[in-house]
Specification:
Number of domains: 2
Strand content: 15-25%
Distance between the termini: 69 Å
Helix content: 40-55%
Low-confidence stretches: 1-19
Number of strands: 15
CATH topology of the largest domain: Jelly Rolls
Number of helices: 7
Radius of gyration: 27 Å
CATH architecture of the largest domain: Sandwich
CATH class of the largest domain: Mainly Beta
Structural class: alpha+beta
Largest sheet: 13 strands, antiparallel
């Protein structure tokens, strides 16, 4: 049967399967039966792969539990035993317990990475198979129409529409949740995160940064994309969690980050300390953000999370500088362990050596909000940024003072063309 199915679908894929008028009903029935069997086969293989991953996880738990037992770590032994028993009783992917020890944390990272890989391969196989079916169906619809079999022709048409809609829905979900894999580029202008005005590519002498993959951007509220960038009145841009994956992966490898931003405010004073205006937020809230830039009155502030936070909060908070007019503003921040530099309009406003310490390799992918913070239950009304954001670039690298001046001069090509 398996050989028959493979031959059957190969004939469709390479155009060797022709619909004959006299037996179109029989062939259409065979098509449906073969499709059902093939989908079952794909699904069963996917379920088997998931079970194999869980079995490997259980075996790894046994080894880690033995290690904890040898160390006399009873808490570790009990955590491993509880996890193992739960998975055996209910074979689904377990949730990571709070305060997971390093050895278990690494196991969970591996498990969920492999789970995502298996899922992506499964979805790709389904998508390819459905595409084969879509390519085969038009011939049946044409033949049924020729025979004036309206009911059958409508059935085929509805099936084509349903498969197309399902594929489009899955593609949309994949863009929002799927793991994004990008190649490391040797082009210094290719960034793991880059958002810039359309005009950048039209101005002579202006060098725009390129994102290594097409960003998925959701507009919420009053936000309008113009040639100069994104104009904010009372809205925000939301960039899903998975879009920050390539940046975080680079950060975990290189242990540094540079963020560059260019914007023009509509008002010199926006927001205040207890209700800041968000220019950009890399995280789910300002209190725990990996990185954020805010306006609080006429003062710009930086929020940065490291493995060693201050005593009174989860992330560091430093003043960037003040806005004194409605001219364009250029910010660039660079951090590597123990070394923080903040620049405003090409000039260093803060240089700290060994005051901010701790790695940033513990960062995890998070959503990115631009122009306004996400809903906050502690604040009835979050204040929006009003103005235009021309660009936002993030990379896992360091920028020298000379590079910052070059970036600022590059921005001036846009503000003073």
């Amino acid at each position: 049967m398996r050989t028959h199915l493979i031959s059957f679908w190969l004939s469709i894929l390479f155009g060797g399967f022709l619909v004959q008028a006299q037996d179109v009903d029989t062939q259409y029935l065979k098509l449906q039966e073969s499709y059902t069997l093939r989908i079952q086969e794909i699904t069963q293989r996917y379920q088997k792969q998931k079970r194999e991953l869980l079995n490997k996880f259980i075996l790894a738990l046994v080894r880690v539990e033995q290690g904890y037992r040898d160390e006399g770590n009873l808490d570790g032994v009990m955590m491993c035993r509880t996890l193992r028993e739960n998975v055996l009783l209910n074979p689904v992917f377990p949730e990571r317990p709070p305060e997971t020890p390093p050895a278990l944390a690494e196991m969970f990272d591996t498990l969920y990475t492999k789970k995502d890989e298996v899922y992506q391969l499964h979805q790709q196989e389904l998508s390819n198979f459905n595409l084969m079916l879509l390519n085969a169906l038009p011939a049946y619809q044409t033949e049924f129409n020729r025979q004036q079999n309206v009911a059958k022709a409508k059935e085929v048409q509805d099936l084509r529409a349903a498969i197309t809609e399902a594929q489009q829905r899955e593609q949309a979900i994949s863009r929002l949740t799927g793991t994004i894999v990008t190649n490391i580029s040797t082009n210094p202008n290719d960034y793991p995160f880059a958002l810039s005005a359309k005009a950048y590519s039209q101005i002579r002498g202006m060098t725009a940064r390129n994102c290594r993959f097409p960003l998925t951007i959701n507009k919420v509220g009053a936000v309008k994309e113009t040639n100069s960038g994104f104009n904010f009145v009372e809205g925000r841009l939301e960039i899903p969690v998975n879009q920050s994956g390539p940046l975080v992966e680079d950060i975990q490898r290189n242990q540094m980050i540079t963020v560059e931003m260019g914007f023009q405010p509509t008002f010199t004073s926006q927001g205040y300390e207890t209700n800041p205006v968000i220019l950009m937020l890399f995280g789910t809230s300002l209190a725990s953000a990996n990185f954020a830039i805010t306006m609080e009155g006429n003062t710009l502030w930086l929020y940065l999370k490291t493995k060693v936070p201050p005593a009174d909060r989860k992330n560091h908070r430093y003043e960037i500088g003040k806005i004194t007019n409605l001219n364009h503003v250029h910010i660039e921040v660079t951090y590597r362990i123990g070394d923080l530099n903040i620049y405003l309009n090409g000039t260093a406003t803060l240089r700290l050596r060994d005051e901010v310490v701790g790695t940033i390799s513990e960062w995890e992918p998070a959503p990115i909000f631009i122009g306004r913070s996400p809903p906050n239950p502690e604040i009835r009304f979050t204040l929006p940024f009003r103005g235009t954001i021309n660009h936002l670039y993030m990379k896992a690298g360091e920028a020298s003072s000379r590079q910052v001046i070059s970036d600022y001069n590059n921005y001036l090509n846009f503000t003073n063309p």
